Amino acid sequence: MNTARIVVLVIALGAGGVAAYLASGYDNRPAPALPVAEKLPTVEVLVAKNDIQLGQAVKAEDLQWQTWPSTTASSAFIRRDSRPEAQTQIAGSIARVPLMQGEPIREQKLVRAEGSGFMAAILPSGMRAVSTEISAETGAGGFILPNDRVDIVLTRRLKNPDANSTTAGNDLILSEVILSNVRVLAIDQAPKEKDGQNAVLGKTVTLELKPDQVATLAAARQGGTLQLALRSIVDANATELTAEDLAIKRSGGVNVIRYGVQVRQLTSQK
Fold it and tell me: Where is the SAF domain (predicted)?
């Protein structure tokens, strides 16, 4: 072996050794420390341990404390640091709306019955619960369910003013909306749907009315037949027509058309 080859071999072996040493030293270096995530401040809030149905009496075992990020905890939530005994204090309240498992408890969604009945406990302040009879024909075929919104239509029969003339006809049938956007509280004694049913053929409907609407409904029941018209869920938040608005609409009267010609205008009888 000549001298040149020996020199090249020595250089190659030396370079390999240096590379191995450098690689070994690099692998032994400690890995850079990962940034430590900042711990978010938390607070314990009272939540529903199980699903709570509308009208259900809440028990202490239906509630539990759950850790919640303090930055997203609403001021309406019940916090353990400010009300450590809330779990037992709230026991016995009635749920005004359904509560899902894990949902934070808000005082506005509960009411203390204080010995009153269920309906009186969940009825909003200033409102009245009034019942009236319905059937499949007057109750939208049974598709009206609790918490739906309806219009109330009064249909009545009026004497034909031409009854004694040679052109006498049948009595006049008039229909008008007397109340609009009324909330249904219950069908018969059921304040909520049962087992996901989508129709209830009840005999009685309980409505949520204002005091002046109670008188309107009571008078209408004596003056004709009442029918409920189911409103679309999209229209549930529509502006409600007041009694004055409905009275103005009715004050225009009804045009009587015969054979395509208007023969007279009937005004609404009080």
Answer: 43-111
Q: What is the largest CA-CA distance in the chain?
A: 144
Give the distance from CA 114 to its chain's centroid: 25
* 211 shares a domain with 148: yes
Mean pLDDT of the chain: 76
Same domain? 76 vs 158: no
Does residue 240 sit in the same domain as residue 135?
yes
Asked whether the predicted pLDDT for residue 264 surpasses 80, the reply is: no
CATH classification at residue 51: 3.90.1210.10
Distance CA 44, CA 80 (A): 6
pLDDT band at 269 (very low <50, low <70, confident <90, very high): very low
Do residue 97 and residue 221 come from a single domain?
Answer: no
| Number of domains the chain contains | 2
- What's the one-letter identity of residue 177? V
Mean pLDDT lowest among 42-46, 140-144, 241-245: 241-245
How many Cα atoms occupy the beta-carbon half-sphere of 126 within 13 Å? 2
Domain range for 60 is 42-112
Q: Which tokens hold the place of 66? A: 């759950």
Q: Which of 88, 71, 81 minimizes the C-alpha distance to 45?
A: 81
Alpha carbon separation from 257 to 159, 261, 262 (Å, rounded): 16, 5, 4
Could you tell me if 134 and 204 are in contact, meaning their C-beta atoms sit under 8 angstroms apart? yes
When mean pLDDT is compared across 78-82, 167-171, 220-224, the lowest value belongs to 167-171
Q: What is the mean pLDDT of residues 65-93?
A: 89
Whether residues 105 and 197 share a domain: the answer is no
Mean pLDDT calculated for residue range 149-175: 74
Query: CB under 8 Å to 24, separation ≥6 — which residues?
Result: none
- Kindly tell me the number of DSSP H helices and DSSP E strands found in the chain: 5, 11
